[in-house]
Write a structure and sequence with these properties.
Largest sheet: 7 strands, antiparallel
CATH architecture: Roll
Helix content: 10-25%
CATH superfamily: Electron Transport, Fmn-binding Protein, Chain A
Oligomer: single chain
Structural class: mainly beta
Order of helices and strands: HEEEEEHEHEEEEEE
Length: 166
Protein backbone atom coordinates (compact mmCIF):
# COMPACT_ATOMS: atom_id res chain seq x y z
CA UNK A 1 0.00 0.00 0.00
CA UNK A 2 1.20 3.51 -0.75
CA UNK A 3 -0.89 5.01 2.06
CA UNK A 4 -0.83 4.00 5.74
CA UNK A 5 -4.60 4.15 5.71
CA UNK A 6 -7.25 4.25 3.01
CA UNK A 7 -7.47 7.91 1.86
CA UNK A 8 -11.01 7.26 0.64
CA UNK A 9 -12.26 5.68 3.87
CA UNK A 10 -15.24 7.34 5.46
CA UNK A 11 -14.79 9.00 8.79
CA UNK A 12 -17.45 8.98 11.47
CA UNK A 13 -17.62 12.78 11.41
CA UNK A 14 -17.99 13.20 7.63
CA UNK A 15 -21.64 12.53 6.73
CA UNK A 16 -21.08 13.37 3.04
CA UNK A 17 -18.44 10.66 2.62
CA UNK A 18 -20.57 8.20 4.59
CA UNK A 19 -23.58 8.95 2.35
CA UNK A 20 -21.54 8.70 -0.86
CA UNK A 21 -20.02 5.41 0.33
CA UNK A 22 -23.50 3.91 0.55
CA UNK A 23 -24.06 4.37 -3.18
CA UNK A 24 -23.00 1.19 -4.98
CA UNK A 25 -20.93 2.27 -7.97
CA UNK A 26 -19.27 0.71 -10.99
CA UNK A 27 -15.50 0.56 -11.08
CA UNK A 28 -14.05 1.99 -14.28
CA UNK A 29 -10.58 2.96 -15.38
CA UNK A 30 -10.34 6.00 -17.60
CA UNK A 31 -7.22 6.37 -19.73
CA UNK A 32 -5.93 9.19 -21.90
CA UNK A 33 -2.76 10.62 -23.33
CA UNK A 34 -0.29 9.86 -26.04
CA UNK A 35 3.30 10.60 -25.03
CA UNK A 36 2.30 11.09 -21.39
CA UNK A 37 -0.29 8.34 -21.06
CA UNK A 38 -2.15 8.16 -17.79
CA UNK A 39 -5.22 6.68 -16.19
CA UNK A 40 -7.40 6.84 -13.11
CA UNK A 41 -9.88 4.56 -11.35
CA UNK A 42 -13.27 6.30 -11.42
CA UNK A 43 -16.59 5.29 -9.87
CA UNK A 44 -18.40 8.62 -10.20
CA UNK A 45 -19.61 8.13 -13.74
CA UNK A 46 -22.86 7.92 -15.68
CA UNK A 47 -23.94 7.47 -19.28
CA UNK A 48 -26.77 9.35 -21.00
CA UNK A 49 -28.53 8.10 -24.13
CA UNK A 50 -28.94 10.60 -26.92
CA UNK A 51 -27.55 11.70 -30.23
CA UNK A 52 -24.71 11.52 -29.48
CA UNK A 53 -24.67 9.40 -26.32
CA UNK A 54 -22.63 11.03 -23.55
CA UNK A 55 -20.42 9.98 -20.64
CA UNK A 56 -20.03 12.17 -17.56
CA UNK A 57 -17.10 11.36 -15.27
CA UNK A 58 -16.17 13.13 -12.04
CA UNK A 59 -12.41 13.29 -11.42
CA UNK A 60 -9.95 15.47 -9.55
CA UNK A 61 -9.33 18.70 -11.49
CA UNK A 62 -5.65 18.54 -10.47
CA UNK A 63 -5.22 14.93 -11.59
CA UNK A 64 -2.87 13.84 -14.36
CA UNK A 65 -5.94 12.42 -16.12
CA UNK A 66 -7.71 15.79 -16.20
CA UNK A 67 -4.58 17.36 -17.70
CA UNK A 68 -4.17 14.59 -20.31
CA UNK A 69 -7.80 14.82 -21.40
CA UNK A 70 -7.50 18.59 -21.64
CA UNK A 71 -4.38 18.17 -23.81
CA UNK A 72 -5.70 15.45 -26.16
CA UNK A 73 -9.46 16.02 -26.14
CA UNK A 74 -9.98 12.23 -25.96
CA UNK A 75 -10.37 9.48 -23.35
CA UNK A 76 -11.35 5.84 -22.93
CA UNK A 77 -13.69 4.49 -20.24
CA UNK A 78 -12.98 0.81 -19.40
CA UNK A 79 -15.43 -1.23 -17.30
CA UNK A 80 -13.59 -3.33 -14.71
CA UNK A 81 -14.76 -6.83 -13.84
CA UNK A 82 -14.11 -9.20 -10.98
CA UNK A 83 -10.41 -10.00 -10.96
CA UNK A 84 -9.40 -6.41 -11.76
CA UNK A 85 -9.23 -5.31 -8.12
CA UNK A 86 -5.43 -5.03 -8.21
CA UNK A 87 -5.43 -3.01 -11.44
CA UNK A 88 -8.11 -0.71 -10.02
CA UNK A 89 -5.99 -0.14 -6.91
CA UNK A 90 -2.91 0.66 -9.02
CA UNK A 91 -4.81 3.24 -11.08
CA UNK A 92 -6.35 4.67 -7.88
CA UNK A 93 -2.86 5.15 -6.42
CA UNK A 94 -3.52 2.68 -3.60
CA UNK A 95 -1.00 0.05 -4.72
CA UNK A 96 2.55 0.64 -5.92
CA UNK A 97 3.40 -0.02 -9.54
CA UNK A 98 7.15 0.13 -10.14
CA UNK A 99 7.65 1.20 -13.73
CA UNK A 100 4.44 3.24 -13.86
CA UNK A 101 0.70 2.66 -14.13
CA UNK A 102 0.87 0.71 -17.38
CA UNK A 103 3.66 -1.67 -16.34
CA UNK A 104 1.18 -4.09 -14.74
CA UNK A 105 -1.25 -4.33 -17.68
CA UNK A 106 -1.21 -5.21 -21.35
CA UNK A 107 -2.32 -2.24 -23.42
CA UNK A 108 -2.27 -0.89 -26.93
CA UNK A 109 -2.35 2.68 -28.22
CA UNK A 110 -5.39 4.20 -29.91
CA UNK A 111 -6.48 7.62 -31.14
CA UNK A 112 -8.46 8.02 -27.87
CA UNK A 113 -5.76 6.85 -25.46
CA UNK A 114 -4.42 3.56 -24.12
CA UNK A 115 -6.72 0.53 -24.48
CA UNK A 116 -6.42 -1.94 -21.59
CA UNK A 117 -6.52 -5.38 -23.23
CA UNK A 118 -8.04 -7.17 -20.22
CA UNK A 119 -11.00 -4.75 -20.19
CA UNK A 120 -12.78 -5.12 -23.54
CA UNK A 121 -15.95 -3.32 -22.39
CA UNK A 122 -15.17 0.30 -23.16
CA UNK A 123 -16.34 3.62 -24.55
CA UNK A 124 -14.03 5.71 -26.74
CA UNK A 125 -14.88 9.36 -26.18
CA UNK A 126 -14.21 12.85 -27.49
CA UNK A 127 -14.45 15.72 -25.02
CA UNK A 128 -17.54 17.91 -25.22
CA UNK A 129 -16.72 19.94 -22.12
CA UNK A 130 -14.55 20.01 -19.02
CA UNK A 131 -15.94 21.86 -16.03
CA UNK A 132 -15.13 22.28 -12.38
CA UNK A 133 -17.88 22.00 -9.79
CA UNK A 134 -17.37 21.84 -6.06
CA UNK A 135 -13.95 20.26 -5.57
CA UNK A 136 -14.29 18.10 -8.68
CA UNK A 137 -13.72 18.19 -12.39
CA UNK A 138 -16.48 16.91 -14.66
CA UNK A 139 -15.44 15.38 -17.99
CA UNK A 140 -18.24 15.24 -20.54
CA UNK A 141 -17.50 13.11 -23.56
CA UNK A 142 -19.45 12.10 -26.63
CA UNK A 143 -19.16 8.37 -27.23
CA UNK A 144 -17.52 7.86 -30.62
CA UNK A 145 -17.33 4.08 -30.39
CA UNK A 146 -18.55 1.39 -28.00
CA UNK A 147 -16.77 -1.93 -27.62
CA UNK A 148 -18.95 -4.34 -25.66
CA UNK A 149 -17.97 -7.87 -24.62
CA UNK A 150 -19.85 -10.44 -22.54
CA UNK A 151 -19.29 -9.09 -19.04
CA UNK A 152 -21.07 -11.12 -16.37
CA UNK A 153 -19.32 -9.99 -13.18
CA UNK A 154 -18.65 -6.24 -13.19
CA UNK A 155 -16.53 -4.86 -10.39
CA UNK A 156 -18.67 -2.84 -7.96
CA UNK A 157 -17.55 -0.61 -5.09
CA UNK A 158 -19.70 -0.20 -1.97
CA UNK A 159 -18.79 1.15 1.48
CA UNK A 160 -15.07 1.10 0.76
CA UNK A 161 -14.88 -2.46 -0.58
CA UNK A 162 -15.27 -4.37 -3.80
CA UNK A 163 -18.51 -6.37 -3.89
CA UNK A 164 -20.14 -9.06 -5.99
CA UNK A 165 -23.52 -8.60 -7.57
CA UNK A 166 -25.86 -11.27 -6.21
Amino acid sequence: MIHDENPFASTADDPFRRFRGRLAAPVTIITSGEDRKTGLTVSSLFVVEGDPPLVYAVVGPNSDLFDAVQETGKFVVHIAREGHEGVAEVFAGLRPSPGGLFSTVEWEPSAWGPLLESMPDRALCTVVSMDETGWSGVLTGSIDELQVADITSPLVHFRGKYRRLA
